[in-house]
Each structure stands twice: as C-alpha cells, then as structure tokens.
Amino acid sequence: MNLINNENQDRIEITAPNLVDINLSYNFISKIPKIKFSPNLTYFKISGNPLTDKTLDLSKSIFLRLIDVSMTDLHNVKQPSLVNELMTSNHHLNCNLPLKPHHLYQKVPAEKDWRFSKSGYSELIGFREMMEDSIIVRDDLHLYGVCDGHGGSSTGIFLTENFPSLFHSHLPPYHKNGSSNQTVVQYYNEEKVRTEIQSIYTSVSKKLHQKKYIDGSTLCICYLFKQLLNDNENNQSNENNQSNESTENIQSNASRESIETTTETEPGESNNEESKDYKIKLVTAHLGDARCLLVKNDGTPVTLTKDHRPENRSEFERIHQMHGKVVEERVDGILGVARSMGDEKVFGVGRDIEINFFDIDLETDKYLILACDGVFDILSNEDVAQIAHSSLNATEAAYRIRNMAFGLGSIDNISVIVVDLK
Q: What is the pTM of this model?
C-alpha cells in the first residue's frame, strides 16, 4: 500500500492484486481508502470509524460479496452486482443496486433498548496463511462459542455448524404455553442443562469422529439461561417443554427465521414471566485454551475457564496415565493443548469437556468475553477487561481487543466475542 496526499490529509491508496479481505474496522479512520487495484477483493469492512466521507464507491471491485459500514455516517454505497450482504446501521442508506430483503442485513449499534444487539465480535487472520478459528454468535439462543482450530479449519467449522442446532433442539429458549399457543420463556436448572450439554457434546463428538478430519480444535462455549428460584417450578417448566417437544422442535433453515421472528416479542417481558422470580445463570463448557471471562462494572476481570495445557500438573498426570507423553510442553510432541476435539492421530489428548456454572449479577456484571489464545498469549485478563470497560459497546470492545492484540505482536488468528450483560 502507498500513501498519497489528498485534500491536505493523507489518504491510503490500496494496490494489492491478491488481496481478498480488507478489515479496517475501529481504527479511527476519517478518509476512506482508495481501492486502486485489488481485483480479487471479496470482503470490505470499515465499520466503527469516524468517517468524514459520505460516499463509498466499490463498484469496480466486481468480486465483492460483503460490505460492512455499520456504525459510520456514510450516506451512499456504490457496490457491484454480486454483493449479497451489506451491513449497515443506517436504515436509509442509499445503494446503487436494489438488494433483496434477505440480502440487506441491518446491523444496528448495540444499545440497551435493542434486544438483538447484545453481542459484538471481531476476527482476524493475522499473519497465518489461513483462518482456522470459527465462532458461534447466537443472541437468539443465548449461545456463544470460540473454536480455535489447529492443523486446518475443518473441525472448527464443523463444531460451529452443529452445536447451535443441537442446543436449539435440546435447550430451546422458549416453548408454547399449552392450548393458548403463547410463546413464553423456558426455564432450566443446572442438572438439566449439564445433562443436555453432555448429551450435545457426545453427539457432536460421534459425528466428528465419523468425518475423520486430520485437524482439531479447542472449544469454549458459553450459554446463558434463566433458572427459577423455586426449583419445583423449574421442574414443571421442563415437563411442559417436554410435552410440547413435538411442536417445538424445528430443524430446517426456514425454522431459524421463524424462531428469530418469534423472539421479537421477548418472552422474558411477557406477563407470564413478571410473576416469576428467577436468576440468570451462565454455563461454560470448554476444552483447550480458548478462554472466557466476566468483566465487572469497575473493569475487574473474573476468569471463568482454566486453560487445559500439557504442562499443568493435572493434565500432565492424566496424559501419562493414558501412557502418553509430553515433549517440550506438547502432547505427543505435537499438540500445544491438553484437550481438544478432533486430533484423532494425537495420542494422549483429552476428550472430556469441563462444565462449570456461575451466577450472573446484572447489577455488577458488565461484559462476558470469549477469545482465543491469539488474544490471551499477548494480553492479560486485566488488559482485556480494561479495554472492554472503556469501550462504548460490545462491538467496539471486540474490535479494540482484537486490534490491541494484533498491534502488540500477536501472530496467530484472533477471534473475540463480547456480550453485553446489561
């Protein structure tokens, strides 16, 4: 890339014949870079910047598929005909081509009164040759996950494609209330959730084994649910859900659209729930070194997961009990984490998922953060928490954490998810 002078201010000019992905989000950019020659450009993201330009012209990037201009003051976007996803927070954005309704994805800034904007995420390939991370961001299911792949991306992608559908069928967030057919919130207790998550994990593991992928992935999943203070009511709620399971299970892609439409009338705000006392619970399920932490209102971090590394005494002993070995802090001299999914040819790797429960205090808990070791190998938990604490919303926090890790020298793939708990 070269810098040229334009209107007494430097404007980046991009000339990169093989460039596929440009991600400049949250970098305090005021002038839109000039794409001089990047014929293979497929993704262009410039969200969250204080742009003084009002028009973005990408009409010459004929292979462009996705444009993200959310949280900017852009008024006009000129794009080629192949674009099928335009992410914007401006519902009146002018486009030179008519996009079908399912092509135009309105991404509104994360504000407290907009229920589907509770989370933000950011990803970066970094200096690696390929992106091996894969993430789960499902506000409708209250489900979030980071899969940090190694040796390839097949396992991570498989996990992010399979876990959400199984969570929906095993732990649906809503159910129909008897003959009234009213959609109401579903409550669970820890025993139910632990049993279902273990069942989901077992099912995914069996399917993954059949795929015979040669790579592997760590896993860090967070699931938020409501638990009634009266456990008898929880049991009754579960029984009601089971009795309606035949009508509640929706498996197709069309069903996902139906579910998201239903949740627009938030069951948690219905009269049915107002009479119930409940608490918010968080369950983490993880293998490996992707990490999850809570950020308090004052910016204090609370670590929720423990890294599974071969040099940890408990993991070291388990590996040796399996007659495996640890060489230079790697399982079988190959794998840098002690537990993972996949990695069928690595002897001694752990397969048991660790499940833990936590109470969420909406008065004192601000953010939930999930990230891969591309972040935590560079930034401490305290660093990550302070960056999030000083951010305006979850999306900005995710990008700032990513940018800081990369700026300080992370050479790994970087994936960050931030969930606003307020």
A: 0.75
Angle at 51 between CA 48 and CA 57, to 5 degrees: 100
Q: For residues 325 and 335, what is the distance between their CA atoms, to the nearest angstrom?
A: 11
210 by DSSP, 3-state: which?
Answer: helix
Contacts of 321 (CB under 8 A, 6+ apart): none
Query: CB pairs under 8 A, 24+ apart, for 34-37?
Result: 34/4, 34/6, 35/60, 35/61
Weakest-pLDDT range from 150-154, 186-190, 232-236: 232-236
> Mutual orientation of helices 190-211 and 154-170 as an angle, nearest 10°?
140
Q: Are strands 66-68 and 85-88 parallel, antiparallel or unpaired?
A: parallel
Amino acid at 404: M
Strand segments (E) across 346-413: 354-360, 365-371
Compute the distance between CA of residue 305 and CA of residue 287 in angstroms, rounded to an integer: 9
Q: Using the 8-state DSSP alphabet, how is residue 350 labeled?
A: B
Asked if 417 and 369 touch (Cβ cutoff 8 Å), the reply is yes
- Is residue 292 a contact partner of residue 373, using CB atoms and an 8 Å limit? no
How many angstroms separate the CA atoms of 149 and 219, rounded? 9
Contacts of 367 (CB under 8 A, 6+ apart): 294, 295, 388, 389, 394, 397, 418, 419, 420, 421
Best CA proximity match to 308, nearest among 300, 317, 299: 317
* Percentage of the chain modeled with pLDDT above 90: 54
Could you give phi then psi for residue 170, rounded to 5 degrees?
-90, -35
Residue 157, token pair as written in the block: 């992608």
